[in-house]
Amino acid sequence: MRIARICDSDQANAFLPGFTKRYNQRFAALPLDPNSAFRPAPASEQLDQILAFKERRTANNGSVISFEGLLYQLVEASGRVAPLPARSRIDVVRSLDGSLFAIHDQKRYSLTRLVPALPEKPATPKPVSTEQHKPRNTKRGKPFLFIKKPRVLLPNHAGRTWLGKS
User: Fold this and answer.
1) Is residue 66 part of a domain?
2) Which of 24, 56, 88, 102 could form a disulfide with 109 if both were Cys (CB 3.0 to 4.6 A apart)?
3) pTM of the entire predicted model
4) Is the per-residue pLDDT at 165 higher than 90?
5) Which secondary-structure segment (H or E) carries 45?
6) Is residue 161 part of a domain?
């Protein structure tokens, strides 16, 4: 368009049909296969599995898996707990809408969150050592306590006095 000295949109709109015709005559090519290369869109359930975040987990006894710090149990569509052997490899899928489900051997399972039992005794806090809270001088490893001690004049063996620490 610069070569044709087109400066505004009206000139560009008038130039475009002739340019498109010349461009297609020069660069257009017939496809090798006349059939369409596009496939039909998959079903919405398949799209949920394709466009999702997947993580692999290992099931323990009772078809229980751990995911993001929580325990989940695999449940079939009928509502029964899935009878999976221990150490089965499970794909946990989080779809884009935030829902969770699991896949094992091409079969889809829903996940039921298990609530852990409350501990019998409340956890007692650990005693805090006062050593951890004392400020320290980083160079000498001594506390930040600067108290001047009085100096005393003491005689030495030659009869001269010198400054000593008491």
Assistant:
1) yes
2) 102
3) 0.48
4) no
5) helix 44-50
6) no
Tell me, letter by letter, the H, E, C secondary structure of 90-159. Answer: EEEEEECCCCEEEEECCEEEEEEEECCCCCCCCCCCCCCCHHHHCCCCCCCCCCCCCCCCCEEEEECCCC
DSSP letter assigned to residue 9? H
- Domain range for 93 is 44-114
Are 103 and 93 in contact by the 8 Å Cβ rule? The answer is yes
Does residue 102 contact residue 74 with C-beta atoms inside 8 Å?
yes
Mean pLDDT, range 48-64, rounded to an integer: 88
Q: How confident is the model at residue 16 (pLDDT cuts 50, 70, 90)?
A: very high
Residue 49 inside a domain? The answer is yes
Of 5-9, 123-127, 139-143, least confident by mean pLDDT is 139-143
Four-point Cα dihedral 130, 131, 135, 141, nearest 10: 170
Average pLDDT for residues 49-70, to the nearest whole number? 89
- Give the chain's end-to-end CA distance (angstroms, integer): 96
Q: Which residues of 1-40 are buried (b: 16+ CB within 10 A; e: fewer)?
A: eeeeeeeeeeeeeeeeeeeeeeeeeeeeeeeeeeeeeeee
